[in-house]
Amino acid sequence: MSALAMESFWFNKSACDDAERAYYEKLSGCQGPSVVPPQLGLSEQIARARDHIKNSLQCVDTLVTGLSSAEEMALVKKLNALETENKQLKKVTDDLKALVLSLEARVGSLEGGKPAAKAAPAPAAADDDDDVDLFGSDEEEDDAEKARITEERLKAYHEKKSKKPQVIAKTSVLFDVKPWDDETDHNEMIKACKSIEMDGLVWGANKLVPIGYGIKKLQIMCTVEDAKVSIEELGEKIEAFEDFVQSVDVAAMNKI
Length: 256
Description:
Distance between the termini: 157 Å
Number of strands: 4
Shape: rod-shaped
Helix content: 40-55%
Radius of gyration: 67 Å
Structural class: alpha+beta
Strand content: 15-25%
Strand order of the largest sheet: 2-3-1-4
């Protein structure tokens, strides 16, 4: 026994636990079950267990009903907030679901995943009367109107163009007229050349240019209208004066 007295062994631990449980049950207003004596029968033990369960439920109700009005209001607000948040989350989830479905449908249409729409049934064969082009007359009238407008515009263009002063194309020509020798009368040769008259021919200045051995050639200028005077023909007419002229060359020619 002296050895057991030295040990720190808790002999009455169960009694302390029962006392502690009874204390907290008293604070909560619950009646704890009394210790079931070992001599009680089975029916009495069951009845005491039922009493214990009933007392526990009453303790829970007491705790719930023991809330103050402020705490109750806070709890209600919190529950309402949670319910509102739940509804919002549900709505967001539904929107996201609808968006995903629409995106899937669009991707499927872009990738050609969806089957092609069925072609519309071909119209029934038309009667023989439908072969008649009911709008042919209108098209012919439109073509005729376009042709008439085009013709009028061309006519107006030509009339406007005809009223403009015509630009007369002219050429300035310098002839080299060579005599036979140094005894040729140059004055007579100039008179002979300028005696040539043609419609569209205008004679200009002239001069004598020495070419050697006392011989001088005649340079004579004239202006001709291209549409009326041929330069080649004019040179042949100058060469026709064989008493004075040995040859005729075109020294220079400029368009005016």
